[in-house]
Amino acid sequence: MKHFKIITALMLLSLNGCATKYNMIAKFDAQEFAPFAGNGSSSISGQAFLLTRGGELRYGAGKTVTLIPKTNYSSELWNASLKGFTIDYVEPEYIKFLKRTIADGSGNFEFTNLPAGEYFIECPVFWEAPTGPYGTMETYGSVLKYNLNLPKGEKLKLIMTD
Question: Is the pLDDT higher at 1 or at 146?
């Protein structure tokens, strides 16, 4: 029992060290986001999925697909997330410029009436599978992340996978 407590304590300490906090340098500038505020003539549709080691498809079914306008502020957030940092505070105004949709049962999604410009898009695709002799569940998958340029009037078809 003593060893169990020590191992548990060590695991908790290691987990706390995994989430490194990041302090933003860029300031939120509403003028940078202004071109993304209205409607446009472009659209993005696509499918989010991953392939398991065993060859099975795992779709982003029911997951939130987030479209993020690319600005100095969002770029810094994006790059910090790619490096595994956690962000303590995000400007509430920033959230207003994000577009979200829910992927259907096959991981399909669509954003319409978008202004032209550069965007980030992301969708989590995770699943659990049993491991070991005791049926312990382990989580697999990742957050699919893409950087894209959307020209005026473009109807972009995007396949999101690794």
Answer: 146
